[in-house]
Amino acid sequence: xxxxxxxxxEHILWSAKDVFLELGFERTSMDVVAARASTSKRSLxxxxxxxxxxFRAVFDLARTMYLNRLKTPDTYSQDATEAVTVYxxxxxxxLLREPALRTCRMGIAExxxxxxxxxxxxxxxxxxxxxxxxxxxxEQFRIQEPASAELATxxxxxxxxxxxxxxxxxxxxxLPVGSDEDSLHTDVDVDRIxxxxxxxxxxx
Length: 204
What we know:
The protein is mostly helical. It folds into two domains: about 1-50, Arc Repressor Mutant, subunit A, CATH 1.10.10; about 55-200, Tetracycline Repressor, domain 2. About 75% of the residues lie in helices and about 0% in strands. It has helices spanning about 5-25, 30-35, 40-45, 50-70, 80-95, 100-110, 115-140, 145-160, 165-170, 185, 190-200. α5 crosses α11 and α7 (about 115-140) crosses α8 (about 145-160). The protein is elongated. The relative contact order is 0.12. The mean pLDDT is about 95.
């Protein structure tokens, strides 16, 4: 049975995500997206009137997927320090995956032309991740704003450096798409992260 309405729109969006990640923004055409989604250009344009709007929608999808995978620190451990450690490690692991790196590169490449989309993606990946960690630090370690936000920024920054930037520029190979929580300790040096987490945070 042919897809219709919201089902078709979601199918187009997921198909477009794959095409943008494979080809980048410039080489992606609405013809290619329609073919990949096995739908007509008329149906594609009915849901997404332009490539720019489709690109923004794909970025929205990428943000939602990322934040759903990252979750919040309290989901990782009942021990507050370990929860922060695993959260920071998971933050790095997700950004080292190939789809995340390609999405970041697209956001950088299109930042001048579509600054709002790139800014929203940055806020979701970095600012929202920081806010979630800051809120947890305030609750569990009784450190109030702005100190908790500064700590969250420092912890996540230390987690990223230098591996994320090496991977972003192609110096280091990205992690495969299948990297998940089960492979976290293989993909990321969790002990290194635990070292600076325990140094920077007080005993809860």
